[in-house]
Amino acid sequence: MGLTIGLLHVRRSILIAATPTRVWEEFADFERIRSWLGRGHTLHRLDLRVGGIADLSVEIDGGELHFGGAVLVLEPERELSFESNWQPPHAWPVPTCWTIRLTPMHDGTLVELFHHGFEGLGAKAADELQGYEQGWDVKHLVALRAVVETGC
Fold it and tell me: I want to staple 117 with a disulfide (CB 3.0 to 4.6 A). Which of 7, 16, 96, 112 is the partner?
């Protein structure tokens, strides 16, 4: 049963007019998930199996900074969770996590995207959480909704 989401987390969500089975089809392979999750950053790799690797990057100050980690939870039609840590020399002492959860609701699916685990960053937790709260939006989830509901 999925990862526990701690008190310090960023949460973004969207309600999609489709079943969890239909939404999960967009998690079926790397290219499909890359088409909607790779917004604002680049998704280089995502091995969709527990222990597989997620590798993403963002461009900061003209350089490409990679982050990601191991897939921790893969429960089809329910949850995908993976570690998120910057590669050295920017690495945090412990990784945070990304969790995407699908929950049936009304005649559709509530899709929640969490970035969590900031508690492990100790004194840096408050500033890191604030930065991610300001930086995250719902463009990934809007793209997923568009693909599922309209095929675009």
Answer: 96
End-to-end CA gap in the chain: 32
Question: Is residue 44 a contact partner of residue 55, using CB atoms and an 8 Å limit?
Answer: yes
Reply yes or no on whether the pLDDT at 8 is more than 70: yes
Residue 63 has a pLDDT of 87
- Report in angstroms the alpha-carbon separations of 144 from 82, 106, 138, 139: 18, 18, 10, 9
Type of residue numbered 114:
F
Helical spans, DSSP H, in the chain:
20-24, 30-37, 125-135, 139-150
Q: What domains are defined for the chain?
A: 9-150 (3.30.530.20)
Task: Give the model confidence (pLDDT) of 32-66 as tens digits.
Answer: 999 999 888 999 999 999 999 999 999 988 889 99
**Angstrom distance (rounded) from CA 28 to CA 64:** 27
CB-side neighbour CA atoms (13 Å) of 5: 15
Determine phi and psi for 54, rounding to 5 degrees.
Answer: -105, 130
